[in-house]
Amino acid sequence: xxxxxxxxxxxxVGLQKLSALAAITHSSLGPNKKFKxxxxxxxxxxxxxxxxxRVLENLELTCGVGRLVQETVRAHQEVYRTGAGSLLxxxxxxxxxxxxxxxxxxxxxxxxxxxxxGMEACSDVCGECGVSTEGLGAASPGLRPPEKPxxxxxxxxxxxxxxxGRRKVKLSRHSYDAVDVAPxxxxxxxxxxxxxxxxxxxxxxxxxxxxxxxxxxxxVGxxxxxxRAAFDVANVATCALPGLPExxxxxxxxxxxxxxxxxxxxxxxxKGRRLKVALITGDLSPAYRHLGFQRPxxxxxxxxxxxxxxxxxxxxxxxxxxxxRLLDLEVDLVVVGGLADERAVRxxxxxxxxxVDGAKAAVSKALASATGAVxxxxxxxxxxxxxxxxxxxxxxxxxxxxxxxxxxxxxLVTAVLTSHVDAKLQALEDRFWACAYRLHHALDGGxxxxxxxxxxxxxxxxxxxxxxxxxxxxADPYRGxxxxxxxxxxxxxVATVMVNTGTFSKAGARTALSRRLKACAGSPGAAAxxxxxxxxxxxxxxAPAARVYDGLTVKREAWRRALDLVxxxxxxxxxxxxxxxxxxxxxAEGNLMLL
Length: 595
Prior knowledge:
CATH class of the largest domain: Mainly Alpha
CATH superfamily of the largest domain: GroEL-like equatorial domain
Number of domains: 2
Number of strands: 18
Number of helices: 18
Oligomer: single chain
Structural class: alpha+beta
């Protein structure tokens, strides 16, 4: 009895759903991103979104593929803060490629194998066209390949390097011949402003704030290894301030938080003083228990009964104990990672103690480093050795509903984002973090890729070459087809970005790309043929592609996750569909049972 599996492309619903979900990315690719209104038909509420990440967050996806897409995009976004649109778009394009392969009779195994090999080829392309950030923008405005050091690092391989920079080549066990060699040049620092402009991807205002944050950090912090400019994205925070025009956005040293009027009054009283700081990582609440230590419901201790008999509740006893402890330790500022009980806040305000809750980990870390405070989970754990000294607090700006207070916090800087439209603040914050992480990864890794579609088109060229070799060898008649369809996904991606610039139609973009691919056939300098993809006449525009960069790690990881998503859905669909192999038994497809 034959138990082989037949694959019916018409039943691959998972791939079709993945392709449909990917359509939400089309308007958010490229430098000209468009806002979308998402409306809940049941409640009538709406949300404003400008990225596929926010769109997915506001969609109630009940199918398995939808939840898988949400988890994949969320996992990528939490690490890189950028590239999620490319990930989802290519997942949709390659899911359509997989469906087309199935329609033409290519087995799932061959699709998986060929697409995996294609991804390895694209990864090699990224490694080959990577551009070193050392000295980038300092001498010439264009891209240049990374230079190999003239002198090997280290003294291995039978060579030694003395202090004068003379390399001794080992001739025998007992003699050396000294050769004059110039010492290795010190790596040039990249022009951060130039690099940031190339990584802004249309978000110029957001990237300008990032550059200002880099400048502020450079004034107080050390530089990275090899003299490179250091940018510690972990020491950057954001504060969304509604009611002001967007051009009032700025970067300030320290931590900027929004507080209520009563807390603002405490901040005014504390102005100019060196504050004693207490850091609490959990909630400032009587009901809070650290994860794993929640008390079972209904449980009551003997001493709790005695306390109730005396007329004092657990909550009141906790409030009194917390207030007494803070006063005994002479705490002026309590920074809470979680939420603060309103009753505790009111008690603290009466005692001129400023409470800031909802503080991010970067704020607590910076305050701990600057003041010597030791974070604790509960207020009851506070002792004198846990209290730090040296922070300052001052009212920065009065708002219509809240007041912005600036708290000094070591090397921490805060980007204050403003807008008259409250619904836009989330999008502005997302853009800032995308720019910040692009620059952070570029400076940290020391390598970027040619942007504006150049790297994708180089991958298309490599995949088409691989497909031609498959046609010549005829060892696997389907491998070339899979690689060409995979390359077409990259072409579709670049064409969509070109359309979103407002200069091209979809047909015009694809025609321009096809013309460039033919022009670079057999040419050694393929990158030059793709340097002006976004100009129909081939002339340079205000922002030529030669000055647009992409992050190497982010791009490669987005591609890998996109393909992993497609292959997982493809193979899951295949496991659901059962039957016999049409290549083994012709005409048996009509007797299939679909489970």
